[in-house]
Design a protein that fits this description.
Helix content is 55%, strand content 4%. With 218 residues, it is mainly α. The protein has a two-stranded antiparallel sheet. Helix 5 packs across helix 6.
Length: 218
């Protein structure tokens, strides 16, 4: 009943709408849309709409998104010059990982995970531009670093080597180099010194990696 009242007010170009006995200001550009979870097997939380509510809306079918086009556009918007090639390779990695790695409940090779890697690519590119000559930046190296940084910690031990093999096949000739945030590393070393703890480089790197990933997630 409330949605019907809102729709009627919009349809008649009114600036107010009566909801629960109160006159409420209404933005004429507002609208109501309902999205439903996919009906596929294993995807919980999907419920059917009541028939009286369904009559107020027009159904729209959605198709599978073009991940290659999405990756290309995001990379170009982040400042990459080879967005088309790099985006195609990233999507290929995700497709191969979905098919060849072991099925784990926490693995995500969909668009959400792909966008996380693409955002990390943009962050690394901006960081490199501040500290290096723009002409010397290797975009493929940055993409591989962002991909491994946001993926390796989620994989099982056996899948780690398989994933690295996939990356080497798709991004041939790219060296695997670990990305370090020098400011963060200096801060961690200072904390170790103040706490009078033994500094173990591998341990410091893992801690910095966890902090970096948490920063991207939140």
């Amino acid at each position: 009943m409330q949605i019907q009242a809102i729709q009627d007010s919009i349809r008649h170009h009114k600036n107010t709408c009566e909801l629960l006995g109160k006159e409420v200001q209404l933005d004429p550009n507002s609208g109501v849309f309902i999205t439903l979870n996919p009906a596929g097997k294993g995807y919980g939380g999907r419920q059917k709409l009541p028939d009286n509510l369904k009559q107020l809306f027009r159904p729209v079918a959605m198709s599978r998104p073009d991940n290659e086009l999405i990756a290309e556009v995001i990379l170009y918007s982040e400042g990459f010059k080879n967005g088309e090639i790099l985006g195609r390779k990233l999507v290929a990695i995700f497709n191969l990982a979905r098919e060849l790695l072991t099925p784990q409940q926490h693995y995500d090779w969909g668009l959400r995970a792909l966008k996380t890697v693409l955002k990390a690519c943009g962050s690394l590119l901006q960081q490199q531009r501040r500290s290096h000559d723009k002409e010397k930046i290797q975009e493929s190296n940055l993409v591989v670093q962002a991909l491994r940084l946001n993926t390796m910690s989620k994989l099982t031990f056996a899948d780690n080597s398989r994933f690295d093999a996939l990356v080497r096949d798709v991004f041939s000739g790219v060296n695997f180099t670990d990305m370090e945030d020098q400011i963060l590393m200096d801060a961690l070393q200072q904390v170790y010194k103040e706490a009078q703890l033994e500094l173990i480089p591998s341990q410091v790197y893992i801690i910095s990696l966890v902090i970096y990933c948490l920063g991207n997630w939140f």
